[in-house]
Structure of YbaB/EbfC DNA-binding family protein:
Amino acid sequence: MDSPAQWLADYDKKLARAAANARAASESLSRMSGTASSPRGEVTVQVGPSGAMEDIRLTPAARALEAEQLARLILTTAQQAQRSVGAQVVEIMTDYVGDGPALDFVKQNMPPAAGVDASSGPPPPDDDDYFFANPQVIVR
C-alpha cells in the first residue's frame, strides 16, 4: 500500500496531466473553424468553434437569386459549415476525454445544426440535384 505522501504525489501528477490536457484541448478548439460553399459557389460561409458565423462571402451570381432562395442557400451553407466544425469538436474532445459520459455531454450541448446527433444521419450530398429535389424549409 502506498504511503499518504506517495498517494498525494500521484494525485498531484494526475491533476497536472488533466490540466495540461484541458489547456491542449482549449487551444485546439480555439483554432478550429468550418467552411462550406453552396453547390454552385454563390455563397461561402465560415463558422468558428461554437458554430457562430465569422465570415460570409457572396459571389456576383448570388445577385441573380430571389431573396428567399438566397436566404435558404445561406442558411443551408451555414448549417453545412456548422456540421463540419461540430464533427471537429467531437473528434478533438474524443481524443481528450474518450468515449463516455464526458463526450456524451459535449454531444448533447452541440447546436442542432452541428449534426453530431447520431439520429440526424450524414450530411446531404453537396450537389445541385439533391439540393433542388430536397429543398430545406427555413420559414414556417
Observations:
- The chain has two domains: 1-31, 32-133.
- DSSP finds four helices and three strands in the chain.
